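From the thread on structure requests for the teaching lab: each student submitted one protein with a one-line request. Submission from student K.M.:

"Model DUF2231 domain-containing protein from Kouleothrix aurantiaca, tokens only."
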Amino acid sequence: MYPFHPLTIHLPIGLLLGNALLTMLYLRCGDATLETSAYHCLWLGWLGAALAVVTGIFDATWLVFDPANLRNDALGWINTHAVVGLVMLVVYWQAWQLRRRQPMILSDSTARRGYLVRLALGVVLLVVNGWLGGYLVYSLQLNVRS
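Reply posted by the TA:
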């Protein structure tokens, strides 16, 4: 079976990192189009990340229950990767809902702090989860066929 997860991860990573970059640029320049673009990157990135999590769970389940390719050494890493991905989805969901419900959230200094903390935490989780995925592929050679 062909793994679908690697096909679905790159676009959400770019969109969610683009959201952080555009938000920072908006805070520096004040151009409203940057904030609007950041918002669109956030919700499109979240939808793509949700798809990546679903395909990751599907691929991991297929891999874990494949009797011809038992990889007990990778199970803990797979589970950690999955949990970090799910936590990342929750954090970005909260940020998306805060911004959706309060479009001028970056103008309100009290509400802005919570929103920016969620975006920063989301970026950290995104980077950590990307590292975990890379470790699974490049160090543990998971789903790599020679």
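TA comment: Residues 5-139 form one domain. The mean pLDDT is 92.
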